[in-house]
From TrEMBL:
Pfam entry (one): Peroxidase_2
Protein biosynthesis listed as a keyword: no
The keyword Magnesium belongs to this UniProt entry's keyword annotation: no
GO MF annotation list: metal ion binding; peroxidase activity
Keyword annotations of the record: Heme, Iron, Metal-binding, Oxidoreductase, Peroxidase, Signal
Co-factor requirement: heme b
InterPro entries assigned to the protein according to its UniProt record, in alphabetical order: Chloroperoxidase, Chloroperoxidase-like_sf
PANTHER family registered for this protein in UniProt: PEROXIDASE STCC, STERIGMATOCYSTIN BIOSYNTHESIS PEROXIDASE STCC-RELATED
Domain Heme haloperoxidase family profile per the UniProt entry, residue ranges: 24-258
Family indicated by similarity: Belongs to the chloroperoxidase family.
Residues making up the signal peptide according to the UniProt record: 1-17
UniProt protein name: Cloroperoxidase
């Protein structure tokens, strides 16, 4: 099964060996040195960790697309996925500057441009573009500070990992649901704002940090201590050995996203909220949208509605979503 949402797995690996058989790069991550005194923050622990390790400017300002791509490369992320993620950051920067943090003009989304290929870390704060509700470690924008790490929000996640040494797909999915339910219960904007793109970002993010920190990219098993270091201190573990080049790709991420989704005890509720209909299935949907649609939400919506229409002919794929919603908390 191939999921083309984040990326199509087209780039041939440059090396003949499978990445997991190559020696890990033990020297690529510079030591932690903390943010500069005038540093700006993003709501993303990994990007802040790049800053804190001096992999991008330690003040978080004027980060070129290439600089953040190089930093991702050092974690073993391949160039296509680097490009997708960095493009999103650059676009968030364009929105933030052009719209002065006003409403996002969803229907006039600019394309990928060559101009302005840089961003500030705090451009990613722009609510509901990259930054989203039901984060694992930040409060919702409507409820408080959506940029800084929130010990209160994070404690909900930690409760799920209580007494465990390692994370797993099941535990991460469970923690995601706890955050989803909390956000839904407390945030009056949730019903309007939590949609397909939010879900894809949320699941994609969990796949990303998990794969960066895990010994085995697709296992979902990360030392809970390392996870805490990343979220709480925004740093990589000491003596962190990053994966070799091209280990983390659109394919590895797109494989884990539906795994997390299936494992989520609240997926029935989430499917209804994101409006893709019970029967269609998240997996089926991921298979049918692509990179360009993703950063162009208007097109994404059209595509989803188009798909939904096509499926109304009675030939509805059931996907792997169980018929009965297991909508427990
Ligand atoms: C941040 O650091 C970069 C690179 O050293 C520099 O060009 C830029 O002026 C700094 N920005 C601020 C706001 O200090
Ligand atoms: C296990 C290991 O290699 N530990 C080393 C981690 O890095 C510090 C210096 O930053 C060394 O002192 C440790 O020996």
């Amino acid at each position: 099964m191939r999921f083309s949402l984040l990326i199509s797995p087209a780039l041939p690996l440059l090396s003949l060996a499978h990445p997991s058989q190559m020696p890990r790069d033990t020297s690529s991550i510079p030591p932690y040195r903390g943010p500069a005194h005038n540093a700006v923050d993003s709501p993303c622990p990994i990007v802040n960790a790049f800053r804190n390790h001096g992999m991008i400017h330690s003040n978080g300002s004027f980060i070129t697309k290439q600089a953040v791509m190089d930093a991702m490369g050092k974690l073993g992320i391949d160039s296509q996925l680097q490009n997708l993620l960095a493009s999103g950051a650059v676009m968030a920067g364009q929105y933030a500057r052009e719209n002065d943090k006003a409403t996002i003009p969803w229907d006039n989304t600019p394309g990928f441009t060559k101009e302005g290929e840089w961003f500030n870390l705090n451009d990613l704060d722009f609510h509901d573009f990259v930054e989203h509700d039901a984060s694992m470690s930040r409060e919702d924008a409507a409820l408080g500070n959506h940029v800084e790490f929130s010990p209160k929000v994070w404690s909900q996640v930690l409760d799920v990992f209580e007494g465990k040494e390692k994370t797993s797909i099941d535990l991460i999915a469970k923690a995601m649901n706890v955050r989803y339910q909390d956000s839904k219960a407390r945030n009056k904007d949730f019903k309007d704002e939590y949609r397909l793109k939010t879900a894809i970002l949320r699941y994609g993010e969990q796949a990303m940090w998990t794969q960066v920190l895990a010994k085995d990219v697709e296992s979902g098993e990360v030392s809970v201590a390392d996870m805490k270091l990343l979220f709480e201190k925004e740093r990589f573990p000491d003596n962190f050995t990053a994966h070799p080049p091209n280990s983390i790709t659109g394919t590895t991420v797109n494989t884990m996203v539906p795994e997390l989704f299936w494992a989520n005890p609240g997926k029935g509720d989430e499917i209804r909220q994101i409006g893709i209909g019970n029967a269609m299935g998240f997996k089926d949907l991921l298979h049918n949208v692509n990179l360009k649609d993703f950063w162009h939400p208007h097109q994404l919506k059209e595509k989803v509605l188009g798909l939904y229409d096509e499926k109304k002919d009675g030939n509805v794929p059931i996907g792997d979503i169980p018929a009965t919603d297991n909508d427990t908390r």
